[in-house]
User: What shape does this take?
Amino acid sequence: MKLQNKVAVITGSSKGIGAGIAKEFALEGAKVVVNYSSSKDYADRVVEEIKSNGGSAIAVQADISKLDDIKRLFAETMEAFGRLDILVNNANVWRYEMLDQVTEETYDMQFNTGLKANIFSIQEAVPLFGEKGGSIINISSTISLNPVPGTLIYASMKAGIDTLAKTLSKELGPKNIRINTIAPGMTESEGSTADGRPGSEMERTFLAQTPLGRVGLPIDIARVAVFLASDDAGWVTGERITAGGGLL
Amino acid sequence: MELKDKVAIVTGASKGIGAGIAKAFGQQGAKVVVNYASNQKSADSVVDEIINNGGTAIAVQADVSKIEDVRRLFAITAETFGKLDILVNNAGIYDVLPFEKITQDDLQANIATNLIAPILCAQQAVELMQNGGSIINISSSVTSNAMPGTLVYAMTKAGLENVTKTLAKELGGKNIRVNTLSPGFTETEGAYEKGLMGGEWEASLLAQIPLGRIAQPIDIARVAVFLASDASGWVTGEKIQVSGGS
Assistant: This one.
């Protein structure tokens, strides 16, 4: 039980990688806040699964592209659990578009839920960690260093996220707060399925270049998140770990 | 018990980071081969500590810069434990040398132990890792934070980091993961021997560490356990710097 009694907030954890992390954290003894923006049914299902495995979790709605919602998310966390130990900035929206199709709207959509929300979530969370400190994990993507056509906005935004840990590890180290990045590679999720990725040519291309020869699953990412959230990573801060089966 | 019944070789494990990793592996249920080049007494006490804590370990002498010794190390491992799951390429020499004083012998000796030996060990390891495995190459944060006096050391470690990337691609199909663990400054017997502890060098390094203290071998060992275990099953070809943010 690597996260016994720790309280963790995971943004965008109704599905996909976020849900995988929420469930794995709960299995390791954490009390989990499953944040969602609009997928209430999915979020409730994650909470139910956690509880049926003997764990502790609540679902909290908050659209983290709005600062007031971020404040409310953390207020509800403190009200329910009285402390905060781990923040996972996972919430993610993406739209792949070639340069000539990119609009202000898609820029704002991806940056506001991604980079901007990460920064303000961290700002809100840091005072709540207290003297004991804590662990912040930002979910990036292998796309940030190895972009492909169509990922201009997404890659730029994730590159910004990559830099948060490098900057803030130095600011927050004296407060005993570690901050790191996980960059998942191609990972199966409800989102990627909705995008039509399974069996697609894009997937085939990525698979051919993946040394471990398969697509990632949320549990693959979740295990790295447990490591970074736990004391095993007590000397790791400011780092970015790719979890992509060798596809960087 | 994250490494239950796994067989691990840790090269250069008689002291310092290698010893810390060997002991942590033993605690997690692994059967550990504690390799040493010349320091038998220290290697034996690492083995004793592992056994006293309920674990399994043997000490095996081998100068890993020599192919015959490498073959012997792996043959003894195969004979004793029948398989291999984890290889930690930790053995290394660390000469702090002003640039003007570097000799060809220094270059060749450092390359032999720090860069060639890990490759020779990895080759042997692959033959024994029939069910997949994890290779961990120990580098150093000097590859990303260049420091005067460390040219030879940093050069060999940078080479080793690149070996990780290529090898991960070559061995992925055999389910063998390869990663680099790059420690920052750590309090070890070696650090004391080189006069790096308790003076200006230590103080200036400490000032650059956001987490505000000097690392202990256990800080590094915990990350080695992660990289050796299934928790990092989706991580290969990667480098994790373990330096408290410095």
Summary: The mean pLDDT of chain A is 95. Residues 7-243 of chain A form a domain with the Rossmann fold fold (CATH 3.40.50.720).
